[in-house]
Specification:
CATH class of chain C: Mainly Alpha
Membrane topology (chain B): Multi-pass membrane protein
Strand content of chain B: under 5%
Number of domains of chain B: 1
Shape of chain C: globular
Radius of gyration of chain B: 19 Å
Chains: A alpha/beta (402), B mainly alpha (286), C mainly alpha (344)
Strand content of chain C: under 5%
Order of helices and strands of chain C: HHHHHHEEHHHHHHHH
GO molecular function, one term (chain B): transmembrane transporter activity
Strand order of the largest sheet of chain C: 1-2
Number of strands of chain C: 2
Number of strands of chain B: 2
Radius of gyration of chain C: 20 Å
Helix content of chain B: over 70%
Distance between the termini of chain B: 42 Å
Oligomer: heterotrimer
Distance between the termini of chain C: 22 Å
CATH architecture of chain C: Orthogonal Bundle
GO biological process, one term (chain B): amino acid transport
Order of helices and strands of chain B: HHHHEEHHHHHHH
Subcellular location (chain B): Cell membrane
Helix content of chain C: 55-70%
Organism (chain B): Aminobacter anthyllidis
């Protein structure tokens, strides 16, 4: 009886305080009885292994923390979280097979995939089998009706772009802006959307047709042309983490003195290692792991991730929001949601959870009504930050529109 | 425009260095080494580890990148390519073997080195202004070293005994063996020389660019383009091909919309090969 | 290529080594029974395995084309490019003009074959690595073209939410009912049908007079042409057939995934199509099927190794080449030498 009371009170607290505090309250008293299998489907090998690989590692580390605390309580049971990572190789065929694999193992909740083409292919399986997934891809048809099973796990580039540009106009007097991107589907799309957003704000877009090939080593040729158009600011649209450092370095060496930014999450240490002091002032939207704003819980997560995988990657601070809100929502929606994702979807609109990663706390909820017509996006805070000697320094924190 | 020409010079020199390794292996073994880009990537990481992680001088790391990746190549020749080449009915199988090796090395590198991009501290600071164009000192050092390496290699192939034997083997294996040359040793060494050059170029270029585990395939594809333009299996052709591609890329980016540049380069290469199937310098074969 | 031109075997032996046609037909029936009856009976409820087999069947269908270009002595890395063309033809026709999938499927193959003929005519003059690398360029050029002309292909946006195949009826008689959302068996059967038809046609081609001509091209083109064979015509025909397979396969995948992006088929896909042929064995019509089956199943089985999956997979692939450099079937078929050129 006592055990049950404890568990119920713990459950209530978990619902109020979110998984982090909830798990602490369990302490040793609760023990996990069952396993909750959750999937991660993404590109974990090849040139873009960084994306899905970090996503999988983030999820595993977070699950390890839940399990160390006894598991997560959903209804009156506690569950150990088991993460199944599936590598789709960045191939749409692989994404579909991988999604089927997770479904056949009884997985109902999945993180990923990481690109438009893989997410669209996985969508066919998700929609047909009532499986929820959180892609890190920006294709709007994933989240708009009639689609209903996908929830965008991060801030889309077309949402964060204008926020940054507006800040630049007001604080840095930026008037002319240029876009450069890799010649590939996802980056070009983000560039087009970014350019449209900049025009809408009244900025003069001096260059938005220049692209470089995937695997370019020397960015002098492409940047020579971009810088020749005399922009105040250069946006690296949808840039792959492996290209950021070299691009910044090349731009500075060519004498570019304006500001630069990207909309995607990047690791400041890796950028600094390649570009050195040239990277100072580079603006990126990112996770919430900056020292100035992170909570003690985030510090714990960083320690855990570093212990598990050897080295912290700032992008993990972005990916950790997905699993967090997924579990919190499951706890709030109750055990029925484990079997039936309709219950989960019904809970999305009203759900309000707690953000354990920021010092100031704040809410975690589902937004996206403005962009997708339904609540299909995690309200990750838009943390806009600048690189300074290999660390991020927050510039401002924005909010996603409802 | 000065800047564009300087860019072309830098890109061309680095490309020439990359193309040399793949063409050596091709000329003596008739193997298209699909793992070339991956070996380049490993060379970059070797320098990174010696220079940044172990804190040793860059130039020491550079020597090690040649030795380590070269030995890796010798091992590949001895334990993979040789046994397979002795038994296959179709020579194309070696291409498949190289592709398998490429995937293997890349996924292994991801496990060992992690997913982040890496760079080393600059080997030289400062920027030189030349007729209004900017050339960072680091780049000058790198292209001078690259040019010296290319010259040294040409001298080695052209004037040493081993070099002559390698050239002879590229032309006619049987006749070379009849001259009393130990082909086994020689082909392993030639393979190691080719991969060592891949490692060396990766190690040298990490000083001005950066390296990450997924960089290999794109490097390989570019290397193929260069040796196709120049002529497969001919050293001077590889150098020429590197410069032509570097020039096309730099000038293309300057004059054309970026997204069309490589499409046009591919189309030019396709048309060029139709007209001249053996590249600029290639001799007809096969 | 270099050494392999040992003794061109085009001096056409009269006694045809036609081991009775019954054996291959029996094998075909066995595959059909295994695919259409045994797999659905055993794994029918498992969407994952059905998807693996569907993908395997369609991929081996595309690889048959690569196999045919091997048969004429060319290493073809353009297959993914032509599959992308096929995928776009279907996607554009279905989404913009509402054309039935059943018309688009063969049409995609035809368009790919036509383009393949136009490109192939000059390009096929190249041999060996040059041909391999130029076809690699073609695959890249296809991806870049899809990206660069958004008016036609929607560029980076991709064409998404393609409808599932509707019903196929002839004179009011429903031959194939419309595919239902989430139903896996229709695609499974469609892929199997394609695979068997593709295999059957390859076998007919290989055992026919044309097949013998193709093999003679591989052995020695000059000799073949001195015998009065129109070498250029035959190799273009082979390449066009290959592109047809690619186009149909691409159309299938576009519909299965209900979307197409410039990245749907890439250089790596071309490489894998080629790998399947090698692993199975180049001397055997059924090689691509065996290769795709073994490779795809083993990749899925290795999933337990998580982060090490790709390393182990590629390691096994290298080991497989070391132990069986002439393909899996060369070990199974110990009985004798692979079929040489038969007749012309």
């Amino acid at each position: 009886m006592i055990l049950r009371q404890q568990r119920q009170s713990a459950l209530r607290r978990a619902l109020i305080l979110g998984a982090a505090a909830g798990a602490l309250a369990f302490g040793t008293s609760a023990y996990a009885e069952e396993t909750l299998k959750i999937g991660a489907l993404g590109v974990m090998s090849g040139p873009f292994a960084g994306w899905g690989g970090v996503m999988c590692q983030t999820f595993k580390s977070r699950a390890g923390m839940w399990n160390d605390d006894g598991g997560v309580a959903i209804g009156d049971k506690t569950y150990k979280v088991e993460v199944v990572c599936v590598d789709d190789k960045g191939d749409p065929k692989g994404a579909q097979t991988g999604a089927e694999k997770l479904v056949s193992e009884g997985v109902k909740y999945i993180q990923g995939p990481n690109t438009d083409s893989t997410a669209e292919s996985a969508k066919t399986v998700m929609e047909a089998n009532g499986t929820i997934n959180m892609p890190y891809a920006f294709s709007k048809s994933l989240y708009k009706a009639p689609a209903s099973q996908s929830i965008l796990g991060m801030v889309a580039s077309y949402q964060v772009g204008p926020v940054i540009y507006k800040w630049l106009m007001e604080n840095k007097g930026v008037k002319k802006i240029a876009f450069v991107s890799e010649n590939n589907a996802d980056p070009i799309k983000q560039r087009d959307e970014g350019s449209a957003g900049a025009k809408a704000l009244g900025l003069e877009v001096v260059s938005d047709q220049e692209t470089y090939e995937s695997g370019t080593t020397d960015f002098f040729p492409i940047l020579t042309k971009v810088i020749g158009t005399a922009p105040d600011h250069i946006v690296l649209s949808g840039v792959s983490p492996s290209d950021v450092g070299p691009l910044i370095k090349a731009a500075r060496e060519l004498g570019f003195t304006g500001t630069m930014s990207t909309e995607t999450g990047q690791d400041p240490k890796a950028i600094y290692e390649v570009a050195g002091d040239a990277s100072n002032g580079f603006i990126a939207a990112g996770g919430a792991s900056t020292e100035a704003i992170r909570s003690d819980f985030m510090v714990k997560f960083i320690e855990r991730y570093t212990k598990d995988w050897g080295e912290w990657n700032d992008v993990a601070g972005l990916y950790v929001y997905g699993p967090e809100i997924m579990i919190q929502t499951l706890q709030s929606a109750g055990p029925k949601a484990l079997e039936d994702t309709e219950v989960f979807k019904a809970a999305l609109t009203g759900f309000v959870g707690k953000n354990p990663f920021l010092k100031d706390g704040g809410e975690l909820k589902y937004v996206g009504r403005t962009d997708y017509g339904q609540a299909r996006q995690v309200s990750v805070p838009i943390v806009v930050q600048a690189v300074e000697n290999g660390e991020y320094k927050p510039l401002f924190v924005g909010k996603l529109p409802d | 425009m000065t800047q564009v020409m300087l860019n072309a010079l830098v890109v061309g020199t680095t490309y020439a260095l990359i193309a040399l390794g793949i063409t050596i292996i091709f000329s003596i073994m008739k193997v298209v080494n699909f793992a070339h880009g991956q070996l380049y990537m490993i060379g970059g990481f070797v320098v990174y580890y010696f220079n940044v992680v172990f804190g040793l001088p860059f130039w020491f790391g550079l020597v090690m990148s040649f030795l380590i990746v070269g030995l890796l190549g010798v091992a590949m020749e001895l334990f993979l390519f040789r046994p397979v080449m002795l038994r296959v009915k179709r020579e194309e199988v070696t291409m498949l073997l190289a592709m398998g090796t490429a995937v293997f090395l890349e996924s292994l590198a991801l496990l060992v080195f992690g997913e982040k991009q890496r760079g080393v501290p600059p080997i030289a600071t400062g920027i030189v202004e030349l007729f209004g164009a900017r050339l960072p000192t680091g780049r000058i050092v790198v292209i001078v070293v690259a040019a010296m390496l290319i010259a040294a290699l040409m001298a080695f192939i052209g004037y040493t005994k081993t070099g002559r034997a390698l050239r002879a083997m590229a032309q006619d294996r049987e006749a070379t063996a009849l001259q009393g040359v130990n082909l086994k040793w020689l082909s392993a060494m030639g393979f190691g020389l080719g991969t060592g050059l891949a490692g060396l170029s990766g190690g040298l270029l990490v000083a001005i660019f950066a390296v990450h585990t997924g960089a290999g395939t794109a490097i390989s594809i570019k290397a193929f383009l260069m040796i196709m333009i120049g002529g497969a299996g001919v050293l001077s052709g590889a150098i020429l091909g590197g410069f032509v591609l570097g020039f096309l890329e730099s000038v293309g980016y300057a004059l054309l919309p970026g997204s069309l540049t490589f499409l046009i380069i591919f189309l030019i290469v396709i048309c060029f090969l139709i007209v001249r199937p053996n590249g600029i310098m290639g001799k007809p074969w096969g | 290529m270099q050494k392999t031109i040992s003794m061109p075997n085009v001096n056409l032996p009269q006694s045809v080594q036609r081991s009775s046609a019954l054996k291959p037909i029996g094998l075909g029936l066995l595959i059909a029974a295994a695919y259409f009856i045994a797999i659905p009976l055993v794994f029918g409820a498992n969407g994952y395995l059905l998807n693996v087999f569907t993908t395997m069947a369609a991929v081996s269908f595309i690889s048959f084309g690569v196999w045919l270009t091997f048969a004429i002595g060319r290493i073809n890395l353009a297959q993914a490019g032509f599959a992308l063309i096929g995928a776009y033809v279907t996607a554009i026709l279905v989404s913009r003009l509402g054309v039935s999938f059943w018309i688009c499927l063969p049409l995609s193959g035809a368009v790919a074959a036509l383009l393949g003929g136009l490109i192939g005519w000059p390009v096929l003059r190249l041999k060996g690595v040059y041909f391999a690398m130029i076809t690699l360029c073609i695959t890249e050029a296809c991806r870049l073209t899809a990206l660069s002309f958004p008016a036609l292909t929607r560029g980076a946006q991709g064409i998404v939410d393609l409808p599932l195949p509707g019903e196929l009826s002839l004179f009011g008689l429903t031959i194939i009912p419309a595919f239902e959302k989430g139903a896996r068996l229709p695609f499974f059967y469609l892929a199997g049908t394609l695979m068997l038809l593709g295999l059957g046609f390859m076998w007919l081609l290989d055992t026919s007079r044309v097949g013998a001509v193709f093999r003679s091209l591989r052995q020695n083109e000059d000799l073949a042409s001195s015998l009065g064979i129109n070498v250029a015509k035959y190799r273009v025909v082979a390449f066009m057939v290959s592109c047809f397979y690619a186009g149909v396969g691409g159309a299938f995948f576009a519909t299965l995934q209900q979307n197409v992006y410039p990245t749907t088929f890439q250089v790596l896909d071309s490489v894998y199509f080629m790998v399947y042929c090698f692993v199975g064995g180049l001397e055997f019509v059924i090689g691509p099927l065996v290769g795709a089956l073994v490779m795809m199943i083993s990749f899925e089985l290795l999933h337990e190794f998580q982060r090490y999956q790709t390393v182990i997979f590629s390691g096994l692939m290298i080991l497989c080449i070391l132990l069986m450099p002439n393909g899996i079937l060369s070990v199974v078929n110990r009985s004798g030498k692979p079929e040489e050129a038969t007749n012309a």
